[in-house]
Design goal:
With 516 residues, the protein is an all-alpha fold. The chain folds into 3 domains: 184 residues, no CATH class; 164 residues, no CATH class; 130 residues, no CATH class. It has 22 helices and 2 strands. Strands 1-2 form a two-stranded parallel sheet. Helix 11 crosses helix 19, helix 13 crosses helix 14 and helix 15 packs antiparallel against helix 16. The longest helix has 33 residues.
Length: 516
């Protein structure tokens, strides 16, 4: 069941909310908690019963390992090697489970490519959300082992993992961020939180159904051309790359907004996951704005444990590349994801080296044109990386990237020959382009302009504590004149946006990050 489906919006969500509010009036903590668990398990059950059983087995084993760790940590005479051994068993269990479903056939195919004949596992389907709940359960075990987190009851842990707004595609969060919020204080009807949550949900729904799905029509054909083995022309290649860059952002940030909005309706706050990433100045800044919860996990559980920046610059660069390689591989079992991760690791090394150089030379590039140049360079680097991320194979990515460099020639639509015929003297050709349209270019430019220069959702909702960690990103900004208020005017505006988004729910759609 998708968040942008009529079944979810008009059936599942109302039942979930009404049940939550009615049971909260009974002042029975356990009843409300059990209701949240029931609707969350039902949400996952609609996808696949077999995968629900797998999820419950995973949760049960992780909770049991967590309890064992907690007992060892409470024992003053406990051997640290025992604690470490139990932790590694827990991490190993989670990685083996994830590895089997997500990577087994990738390794089999690559081994077979070396001339060895190993049979593939046929009919293997990736369980929804396994990449996300695996990371969350690993963080839970590591937190207990390190003494930074406490262990929780099985019911609390079960609700932490399965809470339906974040179950399928994050944001990735820790038990200490979520479980303490499942308390009597939050089990109540709160009209303001309902209004805030619904507004955020509607904005996310609009991002997904109106913007992401619209620009998708201009990215998919270009990748299909590359996949067929044909070269992609210059303008089609750039249209494809820009369209996918926008599609992925509005698709995933739209999901995250909907998840945060849904949680807020239940008086629960999830971590902010996107903060205008395409307005970043530098790749380091980009990763502080893009999929923030994943970036935080990679930093805390991979980059810092393997040494971070504590052992000198050379090893720091190595650690950055290793971290992003693993981050890329986490996204999917394909060499395109591995290369994408390696590329971002190199980007981060260049970003760090550049900042070190400026610091050593005591240079300050604070002029507006320096910031503009840095922002454009960062954006172009990200666009190139998304081509590799999206392509079916590295060869497909190469065809589009070569097209972006003009390798296949500069071709404009035949309809523009009358206006731009003078470009023929510079080698530009005018031919029919089936996968290029002026309307598409105009749409992409409008959406791109909004993405690069307009404020984001959290700046719009700055007057309200809508998500965890939001104020650390706002950096003391003051509310602008357009900042949301619970007024009739904003209610009417939200209703209009909701109707537009609902109309766009008619066509078939899916969230891109469900495949990761």
């Amino acid at each position: 069941m998708l968040f942008n489906s009529y079944e979810f919006i008009f059936l599942f969500l109302p039942i979930a909310l009404i049940g939550f509010w009615l049971l909260s009036t009974c002042q029975k903590y356990s009843l409300v908690t059990n209701w949240l668990i029931l609707i969350s398990l039902s949400f996952y059950l609609i996808w696949n019963l077999k995968f629900l059983l797998l999820l419950l087995v995973s949760i049960g084993i992780n909770w049991w390992i967590g309890e064992s760790l907690a007992r060892q940590c409470e024992n003053m005479l406990a051997n640290q090697k025992t604690i470490k051994r139990i932790t590694m068993i827990g991490i190993g269990f989670n990685l083996i489970l994830l590895g089997y479903f997500k990577y087994i056939n990738f390794f089999v195919d690559n081994i077979n490519g070396l001339g060895v004949n190993i049979g593939r596992v046929n009919g293997l389907v990736l369980p929804l959300g396994i990449s996300f709940y695996t990371f969350e359960q690993i963080s839970y075990l590591v937190g207990i082992a390190s003494g930074k987190s406490k262990n929780y009851s099985f019911r609390g842990f079960l609700l932490f993992v399965t809470f339906f707004p974040h179950l399928i595609a994050g944001p990735i969060l820790s038990a200490d961020e979520l479980i303490p919020q499942f308390r009597r204080l939050n089990y109540r009807f709160d009209f303001r939180n309902l209004a805030i949550g619904f507004t955020i949900f509607v904005i996310g729904l609009f991002k997904k159904t109106v913007i992401a799905d619209a620009v998708a029509g201009y990215s998919t054909p270009g990748f299909a051309i590359a996949n067929s083995g044909e070269l992609v022309s210059f303008f089609v290649a750039w249209q494809t790359a820009i369209a996918y860059t926008l599609q992925l952002y509005f698709d995933f940030s739209g999901y995250s907004d909907m998840a945060i909005g849904l949680s807020k309706m239940f008086n629960i706050k999830l971590p902010i996951n996107f903060y205008s990433p395409y307005q970043a100045i530098g790749i380091g800044d980009f990763w502080r704005r893009w999929h923030i919860s994943l970036g935080r996990f990679l930093r805390d559980y991979i980059y810092i444990p393997i040494g971070g920046s504590r052992k000198g610059e050379v090893l720091c660069y190595r650690n950055l590349v290793i971290t992003m390689l693993l981050g890329g591989f986490w996204h999917g079992a394909s060499w395109t994801f591995i290369v994408w991760g390696a590329l971002h690791g190199i980007y981060l090394c260049i970003d760090r080296a550049w900042k070190k150089l400026l610091e050593q030379r005591q240079l300050s590039l604070d002029a507006w044109y320096h910031s503009l140049a840095a922002r454009l360079l960062t954006f172009m680097a990200v666009v190139v990386s998304w081509v590799i991320f999206r392509a079916e194979t590295l060869s497909d990515a190469g065809r589009i990237l070569l097209g972006m460099l003009g390798y296949s020639g500069f071709i404009l639509p035949e309809s523009l020959a009358s206006q731009f015929g003078f470009l023929s003297s510079f080698g530009v050709k005018f031919q029919p382009l089936n996968n290029y349209s002026l309307e598409g270019v105009q749409l992409l430019m409008v959406v791109l302009g909004c993405t690069l220069f307009l404020p984001n959702l959290y700046q719009f909702m700055i007057r309200e504590p809508v998500a965890l960690d939001v104020y650390s990103h706002l950096n003391g900004q003051q509310p602008a004149w357009y900042a949301w208020r619970p007024t009739v005017g904003y209610a009417c505006g939200t209703a209009i946006v909701f109707i537009i988004a609902l109309i766009s729910c008619n066509h078939k759609s899916e969230f891109l990050y469900f495949q990761f």
